[in-house]
Amino acid sequence: MKNIPFTFDLLPGRWIPTEYDSHLKRTLSSMQGQYQNASAYSALLEQGDRLLYEVYELHRPQIAGELLHGVSVVHPGLVGDEYFMTKGHYHQVRETGEVYYCLQGQGKMVMETEAGEWAVEDFRAGNVLYVLPKWAHRSVNTSLTEDLIFLFIYPGNAGHDYATIEQQGFRKLVLHRAGAPLVVDNPRWHGPQGK
Ligand code: PAN
Ligand code: ZN
After folding, report:
1. Following CA atoms 131, 135, 136, 142 in sequence, which dihedral angle do they give, to the nearest 10 degrees?
2. Which of 59, 105, 129, 158 is 20 to 30 Å from 47 by CA-CA measure?
3. pLDDT digits (tens, 9 = 90+) for 17-35
4. Sheet containing 67-74, strands listed edge to edge, beginning at the edge strand earlier in sequence
5. Radius of gyration of the chain (CA)
6. pTM of the shown model
7. CA 67/CA 182 separation, integer angstroms
8. H-helix or E-strand containing 164?
9. Closest CA to 80 of 126, 116, 44
10. What is the DSSP string of 45-106?
11. Closest ligand 1 atom, CA of 91?
12. pLDDT, tens digit (0-9, with 9 covering 90-100), for 135-144
């Protein structure tokens, strides 16, 4: 971690920061229970623990005032008819938002709140997506051939709550139907009290 002002480059066509402190790789086995089609999930896992997405982060202190940032790459693929996607999370400190800037590819950001609202917005190269405070968010790559790549920036004190989504899932799923993404209700979604 640097303690003087610094720059790095994001180069079109490569889009991996020229400097980063950590490189996280998430594979299929870390998504147990998140895909609707459990038998498709098991069958794919038997063929190998596929790499679903990668996160390149620049480390900063995890305190209010700092801005944590980096680049994520969600690879293309399907589990049954559900696209490769990130785990998704709420921020531990609910009153913290996040800015996403799509560098390459296409996808959907699936979002919802604990108050019952939901939204699904497009990722397309060059667009900026603002995730409001209190909204859980998951990035879905809806291309079957190209990586979805984006820059993210969020407050240093945000923290991550993965457990809520691991337990209840998202209200909406994005499926590959008739050659295109389709947003449908998640039949297995249940709220905090099983609602
Ligand atoms: C992003 C995400 C990143 C990976 O940096 O953490 O894209 O997704 P998951 O955290 O859901 O695995 C972000 O939203 N940070 O707050
Ligand atoms: Zn986030």
Report:
1. -40
2. 105
3. 999 999 999 999 999 999 9
4. 22-27, 51-58, 67-74, 148-155, 98-104, 128-131
5. 16
6. 0.96
7. 34
8. helix 163-168
9. 44
10. HHT---EEEEEEEE---SSTT-EEEEEEEEPP-EETTEE-B---BEESSTT--EEEEEEESE
11. 16
12. 999 999 999 9
Cα angle, residue 150 at apex, residues 147 and 151 outer, rounded to 5°: 150
Torsion sign across C-alpha atoms 177, 79, 144, 189? positive
Closest atom of ligand 1 relative to the 160 alpha carbon: 16
Domains of the chain: 22-185 (2.60.120.10)
Name the 3-class secondary structure at 182: strand
Contact 174, 108 (CB under 8 A): yes
Which of 169, 127, 172, 134 is CA-nearest to residue 150? 127
Element containing residue 174 per DSSP (H, E): strand 172-177
CB atoms within 10 A of CB 164: 14
Check pocket membership of 106 for ligand 1, CB cut-off 6 A: no
Q: For a ligand 1 pocket test, name from 15, 21, 24, 72 the mutation site with the most ligand atoms within 8 angstroms of its C-beta.
A: 72
Helix and strand counts by DSSP (H, E) for the chain: 2, 15
